[in-house]
């Protein structure tokens, strides 16, 4: 189990970024999430990804603070709801829980491993979809056309995006 635990000082370090990164990366993710499905036109159903979720997971894992992960998830989810055509708060609830869990997991295990990152992104993406569906259907009583196969593809797409995006964002961190 020593491969998975964070027992070195390097593994326990909290990542820091310039303020501009904290502002621009979430903003770019939100804009792309709102714009890409519209830009794809007839191919919009093929846009199965959630960039704000991937960014939330990245910053929550890096900062390793459940409180900051919770606030990051809530902000990203609420802004995504504001840009979309669904009830305000649906994505906010799902991404809040995911941000908290990602930061909590980041404290416990070494999240530098590529396999662990992909697995975490996949599972947290499925959890976010399940929470979104649960709140929409059972708490709000709204009809929702959903397919679990599409949610699985979305989770795989989010994991693949994370495998490319995480190393790019790692280069932007402040080194001591």
Describe the structure.
The chain is mainly alpha-helical. The protein has helices at 9-12, 19-39, 51-63, 66-83, 90-108, 114-139, 148-170. The radius of gyration is 16 Å and the shape is globular. It starts with 8 loop residues before the first helix and ends in a 6-residue tail after the last helix. The model has no long low-confidence stretch (mean pLDDT 87).
Labels describing this entry:
single chain; mainly alpha
Describe the structure concisely for a colleague:
The chain has 176 residues and is mainly α. It has helices at residues 9-12, 19-39, 51-63, 66-83, 90-108, 114-139, 148-170.
Query: Which band does the percent of strand residues land in?
Result: under 5%
* Class from secondary-structure proportions: mainly alpha
How far do the termini sit from each other?
Answer: 29 Å
What is the approximate shape?
Answer: globular
DSSP strand tally: 0
Work out the radius of gyration: 16 Å
Rounded average pLDDT: 87
Return the string of H and E elements: HHHHHHH
**Major beta-sheet overview:** none
Measured as a percent range, the helix fraction is: over 70%
The low-confidence parts are none
Separate helix tally: 7
Secondary-structure map:
Blueprint: H1 9-12, H2 19-39, H3 51-63, H4 66-83, H5 90-108, H6 114-139, H7 148-170
Helix pairs in contact: 2-3, 2-4, 3-4, 3-5, 3-7, 4-5, 5-6, 6-7
């Amino acid at each position: 189990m020593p491969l998975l635990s964070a027992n070195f000082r390097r593994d326990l370090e909290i990542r820091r970024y310039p303020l501009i990164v904290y502002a621009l990366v979430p903003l770019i993710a939100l804009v792309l999430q709102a714009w890409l499905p519209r830009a794809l036109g007839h191919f919009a159903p093929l846009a199965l990804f959630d960039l704000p979720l991937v960014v939330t997971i990245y910053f929550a894992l890096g900062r390793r603070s459940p409180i900051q992960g919770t606030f990051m998830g809530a902000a990203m989810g609420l802004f995504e709801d504001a840009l979309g055509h669904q009830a305000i708060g649906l994505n906010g609830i799902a991404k809040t829980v995911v941000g908290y869990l990602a930061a909590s997991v980041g404290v416990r295990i070494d999240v530098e491993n590529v396999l662990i990152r992909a697995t975490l992104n996949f599972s947290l993406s499925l959890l976010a979809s399940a929470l979104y569906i649960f709140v929409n259907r059972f708490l709000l009583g709204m009809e929702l056309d959903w397919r679990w196969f599409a949610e699985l593809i979305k989770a795989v797409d989010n994991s693949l995006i994370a495998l490319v995006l995480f190393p790019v964002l790692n280069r932007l961190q402040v080194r001591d």
